[in-house]
Write a structure and sequence with these properties.
nine-stranded mixed sheet; two-stranded parallel sheet; 14 helices; 11 strands
Amino acid sequence: MASRIINRLRKLRKFLRVGGWQILCRPRVIANYFLNQREQRAKAVVMKSLPSKVEMEISGKCNLRCRHCLRSYSHYPRPQEFITLANFEAILKQLPYTVTLTLTGAGEPLLHPDFLKIVRRARELLPHLNIVVYTNFTLIGKTVTAHELVRSGVSQIHVSLDAASADVYRQVRGADAWDHIIEGIKELLAARSQLGARRPLVGTDFTMMRDNFHQAPMYVELAYKLGVDYIAYPSLLMTSWGYSDGAEGMTKSALIKVMEETRTVAQKLGAPMPIEAYVADPDGWFSHYEELRSNYFENCMFFRNQIQIDAAGNFRLCCRHPGSSHTYGNVLEKPFSELWNGPVIIAARQRQVAGEIPLPPCGEVCVVPDPPLAP
């Protein structure tokens, strides 16, 4: 109970620090948000609300070739291009009730030559936005400085670490950039303090796979010592959806031990990690995992919120299907309002309500059995 209250207070503090109070001056944004929540719970087929969460890929290009990324494959299907400032603006204007805009996708946002202009334009168009950026942070000090990031209007920066040491980072992400990234995080926190700014909030991410899962507890300790504002709990990459690593080589007993140790470390330190959302009983969780996965699509949010639009303007399925070529259409060619309640997505919502697999990619990824873990 205590951890739940603490986590809620942290969320409230985070909401206010990223500028959430500005939403209070925009009743239509608030009304749309709560309508969307109701429609998600009701599994509405025809949506009256617009999405409150939008993930937009501004860069289809990346400067790394990580082991766990589809870019490791030659048949990578996504467009590898930068979105233009004009197209970015044209898309965002179609989504006026967005609350959280996440600049993410299959590429590196800081690689975009107009990254700062894009963030500033988003802030001008929708001042209330919670603008979130997911980045490998290897380009900090090269394409953008720490002070420029603070001044840009970004609300949150998520730095993908995926390691707790230089050698494991090199093994997982294929780059000798560890020291540069760690120093970059320190510089960003220092710049925020020097400028007397409340944002961006700075956080870290860690995707567990064969080569790094043993470092999850050390990752929490490192992030805590760096003084970041939040630590995303280590997420498990165990699916057979096209990534080049996954569960091969891991044992269930070793993974359970690491997950339990990670939770213990976070609790002991009082780290800003959402412990209540982390697996409290890994052994029990794994014993029901296939059952949970088999009906995951029944409560999938991506048919009604948290939409994805790639750098070419394609309205895509979701973040769980990065290798899928499926789209609902292109928002630069047809208004989003028409695609949002177009025949393809309506049919998918109807199948979901009926307990059927909504779209072929859902059956290929979200329902497909995971690679088995050795005991």
